[in-house]
Specification:
single chain; about 220 residues; alpha+beta; Immunoglobulin-like; 2 domains; 7-stranded antiparallel beta sheet; 4-stranded antiparallel beta sheet; 3 helices; globular
Length: about 220
């Protein structure tokens, strides 16, 4: 009886220690798990904030829509004349007057580019008139302001864009352009030499455009 009672007491003590150890280990594990979850929860917002500010989002870049060096741009417009310039690095952009000549159906046919000149003898202004490649060069180009007498100008050369007549305007010519309403530009097609083509060059805004380049 004493032996059995002693054995029962030892077993009871052993089981009691085991239960206490298990309880303590379980409590420790639960505490560690809770601490780990707390640390994980506290780290997640910081990681999200770091991702947002870490460079994955573009803040944009300002776009320069101005003309680049070597590009042509329109600076001003005076009625039917456009002031065109070419962008340069030093900002001293060369400019000229421009008008596109159209036929009676509104199709573009020729171009007129004009600018003041200095040191060119009697010519105080110069212009390039560009006509289609099918122009009869030997017939030359003629220009008449309003009801005045026409002047004839030869063609100088042709490029892929067309044939160019380089003309010079004297002081009297320039005065007639400034006070005129329109000029008749006549050229002859190579395929139809008996059917000259007459284009109208408007002189509306000519004086203001020319004076803007002379300043």
């Amino acid at each position: 009886m004493k032996t059995n009672a002693l054995l029962a007491l030892v077993l009871a003590g052993t089981l009691g220690l085991s239960s206490t150890a298990i309880a303590q280990e379980t409590a420790t594990t639960e505490t560690d798990t809770a601490s780990s979850e707390t640390e994980t929860a506290s780290e997640e917002p910081a990681q999200t904030e770091q991702t947002t500010a870490g460079g994955e989002l573009s803040l944009g870049e300002e776009v320069n829509e101005g003309p680049k060096v070597g590009q042509r741009y329109a600076r001003a417009e005076f009625n039917d004349w456009l002031i065109q310039c070419v962008k340069t690095e030093n900002g001293n952009d060369p400019c000229n007057m421009f008008q596109l000549l159209r036929d009676t159906e509104g199709n573009p046919v020729a171009e007129v580019v004009m600018q003041p000149l200095s040191g060119q003898g009697q010519a105080i202004a110069g212009a390039n008139v560009v006509t289609p490649l099918e122009t009869l060069l030997t017939a030359q180009l003629s220009i008449a302001v309003d009801a005045g007498k026409a002047k004839r100008y030869p063609f100088s050369f042709c490029t892929k864009q067309g044939c160019v007549s380089r003309i010079g305007l004297t002081a009297n010519d320039l005065a007639s352009y400034k006070r005129g309403n329109e000029a008749k530009v006549v050229m002859v097609p190579a395929g139809a030499p008996d059917k000259p083509v007459q284009l109208t060059m408007s002189l509306a805004g000519f004086t203001a455009a020319y004076d803007s380049l002379s300043k």
